[in-house]
């Protein structure tokens, strides 16, 4: 069972605020960003504490405000990995903030020109972005027809 209260309590903590101030995305699998994503995926984005939302917005805004294509796109003095958002992470964060009720275009206006790219990277989710979250329904597992075959990779 997933303990949502544990995530919301953590997101309200000084530790979560310090983590967001240090790096929005890392440590990848246990950062506040992942706790917020979990709440959003389960339809509980409205329960993400405002303190965490503000920390996420501030953290994203510390990134270089364009997505680099070539090495020369990296400004002097900036790290080519840590100072730029992961494209998938940025697309997910946009959706998490939007679901939480944040006007992302107003809070992070530099993201607006990147929306077509983010939408393409996350097309199914962006197509749902204006609809209310669906209730969580357990998946129904249906075995595939016929015998299983091994596929060499």
Describe the structure in your own words.
The structure is a single chain. This protein is mainly α. Helix 4 runs antiparallel to helix 5. The longest helix is centred in the middle third of the chain and has 14 residues.
Could you give a quick summary of the protein structure above?
The protein is mostly helical.
Provide key terms for this protein.
single chain; 153 residues; mainly alpha; 8 helices; 0% strand; globular
- Strand-and-helix sequence, N→C? HHHHHHHH
Q: Share of helix among residues?
A: 40-55%
What's the overall geometry?
A: globular
Biggest pleated-sheet summary: none
Task: List low-pLDDT spans.
Answer: 126-132, 135-153
Distance between the termini: 34 Å
Separate helix tally: 8
Mean pLDDT: 80
- Tell how many strands the DSSP assignment holds: 0
Briefly note the structural class of the backbone.
mainly alpha
As a whole number of angstroms, the C-alpha radius of gyration is: 18 Å
Oligomer: single chain
Bin the strand percentage.
Answer: under 5%
Question: Any chance you could write out the topology, listing elements then pairs?
Answer:
Blueprint: H1 4-11, H2 14-22, H3 32-41, H4 50-62, H5 87-100, H6 104-107, H7 115-121, H8 123-127
Helix pairs in contact: 1-3, 2-4, 3-5, 4-5, 5-7
